[in-house]
Specification:
The complex is a heterotrimer of chains A (about 525), B (about 325) and C (about 325). Chain A is an alpha/beta fold. Helices cover about 35% and strands about 25% of the residues of chain A. Chain A is built from 19 helices and 24 strands. In chain A, strands 6-9-10-3-11-12 form a 6-stranded mixed sheet, sandwiched between helices. Chain A has a 6-stranded mixed sheet with strand order 18-21-22-15-23-24, with helices on both faces. In chain A, strands 2-1-4-5 form a 4-stranded antiparallel sheet, covered by helices on one side. In chain A, strand 19 (about 365) and strand 20 (about 370) form a beta hairpin. With about 325 residues, chain B is mainly α. Chain B has 13 helices and 2 strands. Chain B starts with a helix and ends with a helix. In chain C, helix 1 (about 1-25) packs across helix 2 (about 25-30) and helix 8 packs across helix 9 (about 220-235). The chains are: A alpha/beta (about 525), B mainly alpha (about 325), C alpha/beta (about 325). Chains in contact: A-B, B-C. The interface between B and C is large, with 39 and 35 residues.
């Protein structure tokens, strides 16, 4: 197999800090080459160089053995390299089809000036049909109305429309549910088998194990090595990434379980979730499994007072909240770590310190006047407990994803929340930070907090929760105690509502029963 | 020996990089003071009258009202909003204060003016938060409403007969410094302390930085926004009292250039128009820049039309730089 | 007519004098020092004519004129700042056309403290050393006479009164109104605005919409006056609706020749400008003024007398600009 694109000893520095140090990397037709490493290891920089978004300080690129210089993403595209970044580039006001053909619009008529909607729709339908599981996306739909998962699929479809020989995917499954990720991985493997070279970045090692042929590990801007996938175990890869022997990823569960902290009785929001009941005790971690769209996030938002409910009761330590607003919930002892930390969790221009203090004003001010010394002392304590690396006095925007997530969790430690909702707490954070998050969850539980944890990564629920509720189609479908945890049974429950529906497609049937 | 040299060189390079990094991080903090300094040097060379005690006093006096208005504007811009109504708040307060002063005395006039300003601000805040009207539109509408109100109350003519004691405030100096400038410097201190030490001041930063996250942290976002608009109008009222004393009469058309100039000063001061980022001390520099620019151009007898163009260009430049920093972060 | 040509010739000489003056500017400037001129605006025929008179005479007298413009009647505080900026520049004397009568008390104290004489030029101002202006009340009275001449049988008037709060506009209109009391002429509408022809046009258009049968439009000066005439012209009503205004600018003259402006009370604006400079010079020379409030008489002009009047007293030569 010949190499299509190669980076040769590329180095890159920002403001004097070397982020990439003489890294070699290559990709061959028909292979999935995984790129892994902790945040800050240099993955993003390498990808930006490969996609022409930035230029290396030293070292060069070669395309099919010929020296190449990518001055811009346009150059890279011309060489057949298409990149799908995590920040999706979807034009919300355009149709799905227009988005898919964006940049290569089919035209009609003399001189090819007029955009042909019919051709665009035909191309889009054709590509979407090739993406199994994307059948529900109508080419004529407004792209803005799509879910995150669907938008991701549209981005991939766009790359396919260009027939690019090299595809770079930066954490494509990060915001997809298990089933959607599953479908996408099959698509990616299929593309590779058909000859496309794919560079695949993911934090999910199980995915990489499934589809990658080779894997390159980066750490601190240096290439640690490139290995055949079969030659390294997952644990070995993690050790290579973090650079130290792997400690226990999941700490032992807290055994000091107290009284019922939160009791939710039969809450319903028409069309979103129905008759949801559960309770969680002090010191307990209650996991919520299910597909994206099963209503888990919506239930959490309702419990927190963000969304209205039509029926039902929410009792905290046996009492109903005076008002159903986030403010009242926080005063009563709730905390909420939202799914999207940049959009909802952090005030990015403010310092990490102030973000930590933002939910606990009463601890740091007297009569409305901020006591900066108390703020520094208390946030310093929390930051140490969190194990945040990096300057907590600079804007939160400058911290890595993992440290940002720790700050969002730390905010509720500052506020001394007694019931904490964590929605996808490890999404987009690296392995090292993941272990920190699990440790924090354990410590919070051990200190008597009740934890509600929504996650699309079953292993982490299985590894941290005392009980797991499975939601499907807006209802609680099943509950598993620690002794009964079984990924296959949990998945089956997650798909149950879809099986029950008359409208469920045969494809879903087959997939779920398989 | 050679290793020693290498070490020296390395530390030299390191210092260079550290300096570069410092400049990169702090350009928006030191950019404005440097620009003001350069401007002063330029005008000192170009005009023999610029660097005289009397002229610098004039600059301070002329900057005082703009400073007061810009301080308030800062609060609103930090929430991610915009207060265009300050222009006619100044006019309204001038008319109300003059009338009240003539009827009930100077203290009553000052209180009435401040109350009128605060009332406009509260309405702005409620319209923006409760009625969810975009700040730009809400305050543009209020600009028109308050201007009409000022003209109606005054019958369209200036109100003469403001007590001489009040007018003299603008022309009195304490230790050589004009009183209006002292008032604005005090206001600067108060706004600085409010933003840094008051809970609502911190909330204003959080709401402007990310309203969603602020709300999910239990911050009373509406309270922060309404407070920002109220204080903005209150600061504009202080600016208006300064101007009213200066012109010795209630003027229903006072302050027409202030919406633009205050936004210019705030943006030149590095406050992000997206909200959540910026310091009131830099805004003071922005005010100094606008005032020195205007004064210097006056001394060089550049026509007021050309001056309008220069201020507009400076504004575009400042916003362009703001965008660059925003993108880099 | 002959007189006009002579004055135009004189202007041309003055202009070349200015060019020579620029070359040896400092020598000329040193003779009598700098003359500060503070105007609320420099837009419109009145200010152009006034500034022509001031600048032309100042240069003839050996002054170096420095003209500052506050950018509009609304910017009273800017004009106060302009006064301060002039004082800083060591001017020998200041000419000011005040945007407002009350606003300059403080800054006049400063000028007095510095011993810089201030002459109000164009409109009187309390606290100045002298004032040269047309009597705006006289102007209003003359306009009222014009209204009676145009509407001997009585009728209705809509008034564009000029900038709210400007002394000249208020005073002019007040005397106009008082003089019409009991004359059978009724004012049906009045509207103030910035002195701007475009603004005047749109206000007049609206007034004509509301009062289509109005007999006469009053335009406080020839900015809003020209606006009013244009509105009448675009309604094709030059024969039916009379337009009465003040100040004889070029456009005013044109519109009068076209029959759309029927009566103009002309101020001898250029004379006012020249006279203010002479008064300032006299003050600097320590001469005792016989009269500190100098009134320059107004001249009524109708289409029939248009060709007989001395235009050079009213406005600047066609090729002059600041």
């Amino acid at each position: 197999m010949t190499v299509i694109v190669a980076a040769e000893a590329v180095s890159k520095s920002y403001s004097g800090a070397r982020v990439l140090d003489a890294v070699d990397f290559d990709i061959r037709p028909g292979e999935v080459h995984a790129l892994i490493g902790e945040n800050g290891a240099g993955k993003s920089t390498l990808i930006r160089i490969l996609s022409g978004d930035t230029q290396p300080d030293t070292g060069g690129m070669a395309v099919r053995g010929t020296r190449a210089r990518f001055r811009s993403p346009v150059d890279a595209r011309a060489s057949g390299i298409v990149t799908i970044f995590q920040e999706l580039a979807i034009v919300p006001e355009m149709s799905v089809a227009e988005n898919i053909v964006l940049g290569a619009q089919p035209t009609i008529g003399r001189g090819g000036q007029a955009f042909s909607r019919a051709k665009a729709n035909a191309i889009a339908s054709d590509i979407l049909a090739r993406l199994a599981g994307a059948g529900s996306i109508e080419p004529g739909r407004r792209a803005g109305s799509l879910s995150t998962a669907e938008k991701q699929i549209v981005e991939i479809a766009r790359a396919l429309a260009l027939d690019a020989p090299v595809l770079i995917m930066d954490e494509p499954t990060a915001s997809l549910s298990v089933r959607e990720a599953d479908a996408l991985l099959s698509i990616i493997r299929g593309l590779a088998d058909a000859g496309t070279a794919i560079i695949f970045v993911s934090h999910r090692l199980e995915e990489i194990r499934r589809i990658a042929d080779r894997v390159t590990v980066l750490r601190g801007g240096v290439r640690i090595g490139t290995y055949g996938m079969a030659d390294k175990s997952t644990d070995e890869l993690i050790e290579l990434m973090v650079g130290r022997p792997l400690a226990q990823l999941f700490p032992p569960r807290n055994r000091a379980i107290g009284d019922v902290a939160l009791e939710v009785r039969g809450i319903t929001r028409a069309g979103v979730f129905e008759d949801v009941s559960f309770s969680v005790r002090h010191g307990e971690v209650l996991g919520f499994a299910g597909l994206v769209g099963a209503g888990r996030t919506e239930v959490m938002r309702a419990v927190f007072g963000l969304d209205p409910i039509d029926r039902g009761e929410i009792l905290l330590d046996g009492r109903a909240l005076p008002r159903r607003t986030p403010r009242a919930a926080i005063r009563a002892g709730f905390g909420f770590v939202p799914e999207d930390r940049k959009e909802e969790g952090l005030v990015l221009p403010l310092s990490a310190r102030e973000n930590l203090a933002s939910a606990a004003p009463d601890r740091i001010d007297r009569y409305g006047i901020v006591d900066w010394r108390a703020l520094r002392r208390e946030t310093g304590d929390v930051a140490r407990a969190l194990g945040v690396r990096g300057a907590i006095d600079s804007p939160a925007a400058r911290l890595s994803g993992g440290n940002q997530q720790k700050i969002v969790i730390g905010k509720w430690m500052m506020a001394r929340s007694r019931v904490l909702v964590l929605d996808e707490p490890t999404r987009g954070v690296d392995v090292g930070a993941k272990a920190d998050v699990y440790r924090l969850v354990h410590e919070l539980a051990a200190s008597g907090a009740a934890i509600l944890m929504v996650s699309s990564e079953l292993p982490e629920l299985v590894g941290t929760a005392h009980r797991i509720l499975v939601m499907s189609g807006g209802r609680v479908e099943a509950e598993f105690g620690e002794a009964e945890f079984d990924e296959a049974r949990i998945l089956q429950a997650a798909f149950r509502a879809h099986l029950g529906h008359a409208a469920a497609s045969p494809g879903e049937h087959a997939e779920a029963s398989a | 020996m050679s290793s020693g040299e290498a070490a020296t060189e390395r530390s030299g390079v390191g210092a260079f990089y550290r300096l570069g990094g410092f400049l990169q991080r702090n350009l928006h903090n030191i950019g404005m003071p440097v620009a003001v300094l350069l401007l002063c040097i330029l005008f000192s060379v170009a005009s023999e009258y610029f660097l005289t005690v009397q002229n610098l006093r004039n600059v301070g006096l002329q900057a005082a009202a703009l400073a007061a208005v810009a301080l308030g504007q800062t609060l609103v811009v930090l929430t991610g909003g915009l207060d265009l109504s300050v222009g006619s708040v100044v006019a309204l307060v001038s008319v109300v204060a003059a009338l009240a002063m003539i009827a009930f005395g100077v203290p009553a006039g000052i209180l009435a003016g401040l109350a009128a300003g605060a009332a406009v601000g509260v309405v702005n805040g409620i319209v923006v938060t409760r009625l969810r009207v975009f700040p730009f539109i809400a305050t543009l509408a209020m600009l028109s409403i308050a201007a009409g109100l000022a003209l109606n109350i005054s019958g369209g003519t200036p109100i003469a007969g403001v007590p001489r004691d009040f007018a003299l405030i603008a022309w009195t100096r304490v230790g050589g410094v004009p009183v209006p400038l002292l008032i604005s410097l005090t206001l600067l201190g108060l706004v600085f302390l409010f933003l840094r030490y008051h809970r609502i001041g911190r909330d204003i930063y959080a709401v402007g930085g990310n309203p969603q996250a602020a709300r999910l942290s239990g911050i009373a976002t509406n309270r922060a926004v309404v407070t920002a608009y109220t204080l903005s109008a209150l600061c504009a009222a202080v600016g208006s009292l300064i101007l009213t004393a200066r012109v010795g009469s209630g003027q229903p058309t006072l302050g027409t250039s202030l919406p633009l100039e205050s936004v210019a000063a705030v943006v030149l001061g590095g406050v992000s128009l997206f909200g959540g980022r910026g310091s009131v001390l830099n805004v003071a520099m922005g005010v100094a820049f606008v005032s020195v620019l205007s004064n210097g151009l006056n001394l060089l007898n550049v026509s007021s039309y050309t001056q309008m163009m220069v201020i507009g260009l400076a504004l575009i430049l400042a916003v362009a730089l703001d965008r660059r920093f925003a993108i880099r972060e | 007519m002959k007189d006009v040509t002579v004055r135009r010739g004189a202007a041309a000489i003055a202009l070349s004098g200015a060019i020579v003056g620029a070359a040896s500017g400092s020598a000329l400037g040193q003779e009598a020092g700098k003359l500060g001129v503070s105007m609320p605006t420099v837009q419109g025929p009145f200010f152009t004519a006034l500034l022509y008179g001031i600048v032309d005479e100042a240069e003839a007298q050996g002054f170096e004129p420095i003209v500052l413009d506050a950018g509009g009647y609304a910017n009273v505080d800017q004009q106060v700042s302009d006064m301060q900026n002039l004082l800083v520049q060591d001017v020998s004397a200041i000419l000011i056309d005040p945007a407002d009568d009350n606003a300059f008390v403080g800054v006049l104290m400063e000028s007095e403290a510095q011993g810089v004489p201030v002459v109000a030029s164009g409109a009187p101002l309390t606290g100045t050393n002298a004032a040269v202006s047309a009597s705006h009340c006289d102007l209003g009275l003359a306009m009222a006479e014009g209204a009676v001449e145009l509407l001997p049988e009585g009728g209705t008037v809509a008034a564009l009164t000029g900038p709210a709060g400007a002394f000249w506009a208020t005073e002019r209109y007040r005397c106009f109104k008082e003089a019409l009391d009991g004359s059978g002429i009724e004012i049906v509408a009045e509207q103030s605005s910035e002195p701007d022809a475009a603004v005047g046009l749109s206000i007049a258009t609206d007034l004509l919409q509301r009062f289509p049968d109005v007999d006469l439009l009053y335009g406080a000066d020839d900015t809003v006056g020209v606006g009013a005439a244009r509105a009448v012209q675009s309604n094709d009503a030059c024969d039916d609706i009379a337009v009465l205004t003040a100040i004889l600018g070029e456009t005013t003259e044109e519109l009068m020749r076209e029959g759309c402006i029927d009566y103009v009370v002309a101020q001898q604006t250029v004379v006012i400008g020249r006279e203010s400079v002479r008064v300032a010079k006299a003050l600097l020379d320590g001469e005792e003024l016989e009269e500190t409030s100098i009134i320059v008489p107004v001249v009524p002009v109708t289409p029939t007398t248009l060709d007989e009047v001395d235009v050079g007293a009213f406005r600047q030569p066609a090729d002059w600009s600041l």
